[in-house]
């Protein structure tokens, strides 16, 4: 089915929910560790981009 330009944009999911019922405790802890690693990676990228923005703001003297 074709999408009309008037239709609201479809929100893209970043992560698909994992079916937790089939996982054991050790697997769930590993999954949490993987998610925490990804969170750290994203937070580091946010900090890097924020630093670049702050440097540009200082250069152009934005309030």
Q: Which short descriptors sum up this protein?
A:
63 residues, mainly alpha
> In percent, how helical is the residue content?
55-70%
Q: Tell me, what's the shape?
A: flat
Q: What number is the mean pLDDT? A: 88
Number of helices: 1
Largest sheet: none
Strand segment count: 0
Which structural class matches the secondary elements?
A: mainly alpha
Radius of gyration, rounded? 20 Å
The residue ranges in which pLDDT falls below 50 over 5 or more consecutive positions are none
End-to-end gap: 48 Å
Strand percentage lies at under 5%
- H-E order: H
Question: What is the chains' assembly state?
Answer: single chain
What does this 3D model show about the protein?
- This protein is mainly alpha-helical.
- It has a domain of 41 residues.
- The chain contains one helix and no strands.
- The N and C termini lie far apart (48 Å).
Per-chain topology:
Elements: H1 25-60
Question: Short summary of the structure?
Answer:
The protein is 57% helix and 0% strand. With 63 residues, the protein is mostly helical.
């Amino acid at each position: 089915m074709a999408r009309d330009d008037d239709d609201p944009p479809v929100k893209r999911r970043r992560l698909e929910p994992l079916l937790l019922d089939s996982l054991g405790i050790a697997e769930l802890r590993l999954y949490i560790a993987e998610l925490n690693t990804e969170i750290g990676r994203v937070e580091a990228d946010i900090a890097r981009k924020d630093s670049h923005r702050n440097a540009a703001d200082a250069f152009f003297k934005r309030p």
